Amino acid sequence: VQLQASGGGAVQAGSSLMLTCAASGGAFNTYNMAWFRRTPGKEREFVAVTSWSGSGTFYADSVKGRFTISRDNAKNMLYLRMNNLKPEDTGTYYCARGLQYTFLSYSDSNHPRESEFDFWGQGTQVTVSS
After folding, report:
1. Span 111-127, mean pLDDT?
2. How crowded is residue 69: how many other Cβ atoms within 10 Å of its Cβ?
3. Burial grade of 1 (CB within 10 A; 0-12, 13-18, 19 or more)
4. Strand-pair category, 124-129 with 9-12
């Protein structure tokens, strides 16, 4: 499976961006999909996950209420709508393919682990200035 992330850019705080991830070359609609990010000086961290059908979602507390993950299985596309962006959202955003037909009971103390994800996109840069 190949994942191609795009849509990043340089914006001011309070702005919005829509990231997209195009999947090709393998199964998409039976797998959970997620966004992770690597912010300056930190390890890659979980942002949001959606179940294979799109009916289940879970967000990191830092983006809850501002970001929305969605998918279009007919188009093999994953999205991340980011509103009210903050400087601390600056980083490289990665899409990733997760578990098949299994959406675990995630919580603030039990985020999706990178080991659940087998294919990763190349990343798209988001820069938010104050």
Report:
1. 96
2. 22
3. middle
4. parallel
